[in-house]
Design a protein that fits this description.
single chain; nucleotide binding; FAD-linked_oxidoreductase-like; about 280 residues; TIM Barrel; alpha/beta; proline metabolism; flavoprotein; eight-stranded parallel barrel; nucleotide-binding
Length: about 280
């Protein structure tokens, strides 16, 4: 069982728990992106098991819920071999199409970018109910976006949570913010699909709203479970808002990442422990 100190950031350990959370969020106007926790598998069995769990979740989602899934390449076997990842991704996309559901593909560290983009492009032309995450901190993202805007689907822009080599990435908060805003402007101007604004930064969310009003481009705001949830509900009164909802038995390392990355999260955890 997930302890109360962690359940702010993780919906539960199984599909029933995450679907219960999805129902609660939908009642407040916020939609959900479900992510089964797991990554960096070195053997095929756990990758195949997680792919099967995603297929099962997609089949179990009630028609009344507006929810989708987001998968990590290393969770689907990328480090076992690119073909394992591609097979598992294709199997999930096929079930999602049968069920009328959307599939996001997360972006991981810099060594996986090319294979992840290739797999997305190989699937999205025939299965446009797909989206891909791109990271603003990577210097290559300008070129990647010029390629990706030619494809259907959705593109989620995040600032980037990994630690790539200095020569490959923008350094410092100001440089990453500048890149993020530049990429937002490009996507709202050039992309015919939907822009996923993956940010908790009020300035970036406000800039996205301004760009939407200027260009009319479809967009949605995406934030993590447990972070600025009041703002998520407030924004959902006027805009499409999705909450990224992790679940599963591998919750401990994810919880610690959330606690360490922001002072507010650490204070929350400390208060919960002391009470």
């Amino acid at each position: 069982m997930i302890p109360p100190v962690a359940d702010r950031f993780v919906a539960g350990e199984d599909a029933a728990a995450v679907l219960d959370h999805v129902r609660r969020m939908e009642a407040s106007g916020v939609k959900s992106i479900c992510n089964l926790l797991g990554e960096h598998y070195q053997e095929r069995d756990p990758a195949d098991e997680d792919a099967a769990a995603y297929r099962s979740l997609l089949r179990d989602m009630p028609d009344s819920l507006d929810a989708c899934v987001s998968v990590k390449p290393s969770q689907l076997g990328l480090q076992v071999g690119p073909s394992v990842f591609e097979e598992n991704l294709a199997s999930i996309v096929a079930v999602a199409e049968e069920e009328g559901r959307f599939v996001w593909v997360d972006m991981e560290d810099y060594t996986t970018i090319d294979t992840t983009i290739d797999a997305f492009e190989a699937n999205v032309a025939d299965h446009p109910e797909m989206g891909l995450c791109v990271q603003a901190n990577m210097k290559r993202t300008d070129d990647d976006l010029r390629e990706l805007v030619e494809y259907p689907g959705k593109l989620r822009l995040v600032k980037g949570a990994y630690d790539p080599p200095r020569e490959l990435a923008h350094q410092g908060k100001a440089a990453v913010n500048e890149a993020y805003e530049r990429h937002l402007e490009f996507l709202f101007r050039e992309y015919d699909g939907t822009v996923g604004v993956g940010s908790h930064d009020p300035a970036m969310v406000e800039r996205a709203i301004e760009l939407h009003e200027e260009h009319g481009t479809d967009f949605e705001i995406q934030m993590l479970m447990g972070v600025r949830e009041d703002a998520q509900v407030d924004l959902a009164r006027e805009y499409e808002v999705y909450q990224y909802v992790p679940y599963g038995s591998r919750w401990l390392s994810y919880f610690y990442r959330r606690v360490l990355e922001r002072k507010e999260n650490a204070l929350f955890a400390l208060r919960a422990i002391l009470s």
